[in-house]
């Protein structure tokens, strides 16, 4: 059963804590849709999530490549950015179905651009900028556990 939780992040340190909480709670195989406007912090959240999973290299936005793979402790994480996708059918040409046949973790920015060809997400994370803050809505099987983890590990 999916639950919903809302958080307010006051700073980038809050985004880092959220990435760590998600890395602890969200387990592969899973599909996560990251929603938000340009500059909402989707790629920044993915960067902190990857760091919490042990990735020490650069994390670049896959805006032009559409997908960046990361191998972390026996789990493959795919970071997708579909912003520049012209038509959902392009996903067929890039072999999108193969990414969903594996035991991977799939983080997808701009998933609405692949509507009709992407499966339903296990998690939905919506980031809404509000001045210098971010309102985060989490929907997923353990959304409240992520929110609890954020509050247990010091306030933002």
Summarize, please.
GO terms for molecular function: ATP binding; metal ion binding. With 156 residues, the protein is of the alpha/beta class.
Walk me through the topology:
Blueprint: E1 3-9, H1 12-25, E2 30-35, H2 42-52, E3 67-72, E4 75-81, H3 90-93, H4 96-100, E5 105-109, E6 123-130, E7 133-140, H5 143-152
Helix pairs in contact: 1-2, 1-5
Task: Describe the protein's architecture and organization.
- The protein is an alpha/beta fold.
- It is about 30% helix and about 30% strand.
- The protein has 5 helices and 7 strands, in the order βαβαββααβββα.
- It has helices at about 10-25, 40-50, 90-95, 95-100, 145-150, and strands spanning about 5-10, 30-35, 65-70, 75-80, 105-110, 125-130, 135-140.
- It has a 7-stranded mixed sheet, with helices on one face.
- A hairpin with a 2-residue loop joins strand 6 (about 125-130) and strand 7 (about 135-140).
- Helix 1 (about 10-25) crosses helix 2.
- The longest helix has 14 residues, at about 10-25.
- The chain is globular.
- It starts with a strand and ends with a helix.
- The mean pLDDT is about 90.
Quaternary state of the chains: single chain
Q: Report the count of strand segments.
A: 7
Helix segment tally = 5
Structural class: alpha/beta
Cα-to-Cα separation, first versus last residue = 28 Å
Average pLDDT reading: 90
Radius of gyration: 15 Å
Please give the share of residues in helix: 25-40%
Order of helices and strands: EHEHEEHHEEEH
User: Quick one: biggest sheet?
Assistant: 7 strands, mixed
Unreliable stretches covering 5 or more consecutive residues: none
User: Spatial order of the strands in the main sheet?
Assistant: 1-7-6-2-5-4-3
Q: Approximately what portion of the residues adopt beta-strand conformation?
A: 25-35%
Overall form: globular
């Amino acid at each position: 059963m999916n639950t919903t939780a809302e958080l307010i992040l006051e700073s980038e340190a809050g985004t880092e804590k959220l990435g760590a909480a998600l890395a602890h709670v969200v387990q592969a195989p899973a599909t996560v849709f990251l929603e938000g406007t340009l500059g909402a912090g989707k790629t920044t959240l993915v960067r902190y999530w990857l760091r919490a999973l042990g990735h020490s290299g650069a994390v670049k936005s896959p805006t032009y490549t559409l997908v960046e793979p990361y191998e972390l402790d026996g789990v493959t994480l795919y970071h997708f950015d579909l912003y520049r996708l012209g038509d959902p059918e392009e996903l067929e040409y890039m072999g999108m179905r193969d990414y969903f046949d594996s035991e991977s973790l799939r983080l997808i920015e701009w998933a609405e651009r692949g509507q009709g060809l992407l499966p339903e997400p296990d998690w939905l994370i919506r980031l809404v900028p509000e001045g210098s803050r971010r309102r985060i809505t989490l929907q997923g099987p353990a959304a409240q556990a992520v929110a609890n983890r954020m509050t247990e590990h010091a306030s933002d």
